[in-house]
Amino acid sequence: MIYIVRHGQTAWNLQGRKQGRKDSPLTLKGVEQAKEVSKILNDSIKDYTKFKIVVSPQWRCQQFASIICELAGIDFSACIFEENLREHCFGLWEGKTEEEIEEEFPGFLAKRYIPENYWSYVVPMGESYELLYSRIKKVLDKYEGQKVVYICHEMVSKVIRGKTLNLSPEQILPLRHPQDCVYKVENNTLTELRSV
């Protein structure tokens, strides 16, 4: 059984900037989303000692995880930080809006979004979804058969769901992960959990 959590809203989310390996802080709304997600997890998980909390080492995920841990009574130092859970690398596009990317790299975004290119398109000095998938597979293989809460990023979340549920690239690419919801995967079944 796994739970997949996406970090809450950040300053760059609000501005429509590609974050990738760079970071911007959680907004106040992002902090509130951490509290909501903690409540969702607490309602669903009765014994955290049976779970590993596996977190992207990026600052926005560490911030989010620290709030969840505090509200769940988990020692934050017990979290496991996995390098391979880092967000999809946007290379030279990080910190930029799509308008700024188009100015600096005319036509590149259009090439990336061509359906037959999207999965394998490598962002300049960054990575493709295909490369991200191989990276995430290593994490999932490492914790296979264990109970895990993954605290990560939207693109990482969709690849985790895709790999776990044996989805095709075409099924993975359109997936989204709202910042106030948790996905639970158990026995090849996906459940979306939200606070009531």
Neighbour order of strands in the largest sheet: 3-2-4-1-5-6
Stretches where pLDDT is under 50 for at least 5 consecutive residues are none
Outline type: globular
Overall structural class, as computed from helix and strand content, comes to: alpha/beta
Number of domains: 1
Mean pLDDT: 97
**Architecture, according to CATH?**
3-Layer(aba) Sandwich
| Radius of gyration of CA atoms, rounded to a whole number | 16 Å
Order of helices and strands: EHHEHEHHHEHHEE
In the CATH hierarchy, what is the superfamily?
Answer: Phosphoglycerate mutase-like
Strand content: 5-15%
Here the CATH topology equals: Rossmann fold
Helix content: 25-40%
What is the number of E strands? 6
Distance between the termini: 22 Å
What composes the largest sheet? 6 strands, mixed
Q: What is the CATH C-level name?
A: Alpha Beta
Describe the 3D structure.
The chain is of the alpha/beta class and 196 residues long. It has a single domain (2-194), classed as Rossmann fold (3-Layer(aba) Sandwich), CATH 3.40.50.1240. 39% of the residues lie in helices and 14% in strands. It has eight helices and six strands. The protein has helices spanning 11-15, 28-44, 59-72, 98-104, 108-112, 129-142, 154-164, 169-172, and strands spanning 2-6, 52-55, 80-81, 148-152, 181-186, 189-194. Strand 5 (181-186) and strand 6 form a beta hairpin. Helix 2 crosses helix 3 and helix 6 crosses helix 7 (154-164). The longest helix is centred in the first third of the chain and has 17 residues, at 28-44. The model has no long low-confidence stretch (mean pLDDT 97).
